Amino acid sequence: MATVQEALHLADQHLYAGRLAEAEAIYRQILGVQPNHVGVLHNLGLIAVQTGRLAMAEELIRKALGLDAGNAIIHCSLGEVYRTQGRPQEAMESYQRALQLRPGYPEAASNLGLVLADQGRLSEAAAACRSALQSRPDFAPAHNILGKILGSSGDFAQAIASFQQALAIQPHFAEAWNNLGVTYHESGQAGPALEALQRAAQLNPNAPEIHNNLGRLLGDLDQLDEAIAAYRRALDLHPHFPDAYNGLAQAFNRRGQVDEAIAALRQIVQGGSSFAGAHSNLIYTLHFHPAQDAALIAEEQRRWNAHFLEPLRSSIASHTNTREPDRRLRIGLVSPDFCQHVIGRNVLPYFEQHDPANFEIYCYSEVARPDRWTDLFRQHADHWRPITGLSDEALANLIRQDAVDVLVDLTQHMAGNRLTMFARQPAPVQASFAGYPAGTGVETIHYRLSDRFLENGPSSGERVFLLDSFWCYATQGMDIPVNPLPASTNGHITFGALNNLTKVNEPLLESWARILGAVKGSRLLLLGSRGSHRQRITDFLQRLGVESHRVEFLLPCRREEYLRYHQRIDLILDSFPYNGHTTSLDALWMGVPVVSLAGNTSVSRGGLSILSNLALAELVARSADDYVRVAVDLATDLPRLATLRASLRSRMEASVLMDASRFADSIEDAFRSMWREWCQEHRA
């Protein structure tokens, strides 16, 4: 019979080789003989951590610590349990105790860096990792953790250097390859990112996080079929992985599979996940469904409040802002999109024309990849606050310290939102605008900006201020000339629909097929990445009588080339129920008229708003039959098409759609009214 020492040696071999079940079985046999064996209790605790049994892990490691209170390694392991459980203060105390017992202990110092980074204390976190590397320069995990911290602070070059240092020491370090790939991706280096993530997947094929990160990169590369396969692999390995479900939903959305996207997102929400971004994604995606229901969206918004706002309600503090209704106001704007983005392009005219004597702008920016547009925003802001890596609590505290009067969410339920921070109500007045024309439903956001054409019924709880136009179009130097009507030379009408395929659904395709059937020889240009979704759309249209050669897909591209696509198009067929917004403005600027269908929700009335502000409301249909009729009538009237093409740009320039001064004034009038209401309600 093997001795305890021999059994322990065999169990340790299994543990180091990753054969956790075999190791655990032998360790438990040893405990039957020696129930207070410190090393066995500790190692069983480590196995419990790796297999997700955190309560058991804590019990085992605390028992080991009770038998050997001066053991720095066990204190460090207990810190890791606390960190994994989301108990940062206790984790830090355990790591600090380990460092007291063993000064310079690299594992404890680098793990302390991780916890500090999670608290937004990035400089302290980096210092902790550098302390670990002073004690042990060849400690690859510390280089890896330092890289994660530097990446969180936006220092991608130094982060990449740290990961590369880790890999020079430990070439088969899968986690470092994964982090290197993620950082290359975040810094816009897709090729090296793909190589690094594929290497990570080779080294650790059973890590769901790696496949999830690979899916996110492949999605951004418009390789949607491959992205979906990667997310599904992640879910095979981790069936309750919210990030992977969320990524899968985004990929389905971009392939125009809204039902599949909603199903994936409901997997997260119904599982009780604390992943607010996924619940936001569900709320936003519901707006795209052809059978969208305002009551269903409102119900999901109520669930969002119950899950993410209610636990914070009792901790929301009163505000000490000076209650003077006409003083200079501090306006805070929160966004990840202060860059070349549809939201950024729409709000930049406000920045350029705002009234600095009466309004002071604070930008809370979480831009992943700053560009020349970011520089423009920074130039026009009075205060620029980078917030990448800041927790909701830290960001809310910063906003309170800045004494912001009116805090504006520019993202709503779109990707990268900070609505869970708005739930903390760091400013006395909170509003939403610009993400898309609809309410967030977040109870601590009191107001939203819209316009008179978009609104068609009761709001989702916020007070609505009506602008002349929800949109203000800015070309920023993209003055590509309008060309003559393509149909006048090529002998056929070319329809276009350059919206994201998320907006394409079967009722819309049926209408397009009717239009193409009525306009003989016509063509349809769509914008979409390569993948099986193209064939799905082509097959659907073909079943309705539209030959495949009449449908052409254009690849997503840089903005200038995208605008030039319009030089091939005679008439844009707007999407419904979620209309094109900025894409319609782009088309009209390029001289291409848009036929739209107005619905009952704000997102389905974008075409009505834009076209009404150009005195072209006759191009807005009220039913699917009417949509087909309006499109066919216009497509078969070449003189009218040519006249519109020649006049649309001047119409745009003369309209409220490009009146930046009027746009800024109306926004700031709304901010002033919001503030006066608060002062009135909170008079001493």
TrEMBL record:
Molecular function per GO: protein O-acetylglucosaminyltransferase activity
Domain (O-GlcNAc transferase C-terminal) ranges: 320-452, 491-665
Involved pathway(s): Protein modification; protein glycosylation
Enzyme class: transferase
UniProt keyword annotations, A-Z: Glycosyltransferase, Repeat, TPR repeat, Transferase
TPR repeats: 72-105, 140-173, 174-207, 208-241
SUPFAM superfamilies: TPR-like, UDP-Glycosyltransferase/glycogen phosphorylase
InterPro entries: Glycosyltr_41/O-GlcNAc_trsf (IPR051939), OGT/SEC/SPY_C (IPR029489), TPR-like_helical_dom_sf (IPR011990), TPR_rpt (IPR019734)
Entries under PROSITE patterns matching the protein: TPR, TPR_REGION
Annotated EC: 2.4.1.255
Family: Belongs to the glycosyltransferase 41 family. O-GlcNAc transferase subfamily.
PANTHER family in the cross-refs: PROTEIN O-GLCNAC TRANSFERASE, UDP-N-ACETYLGLUCOSAMINE--PEPTIDE N-ACETYLGLUCOSAMINYLTRANSFERASE SPINDLY-RELATED
Name of the molecule in the record: protein O-GlcNAc transferase
Species of the source: Chthoniobacter flavus Ellin428
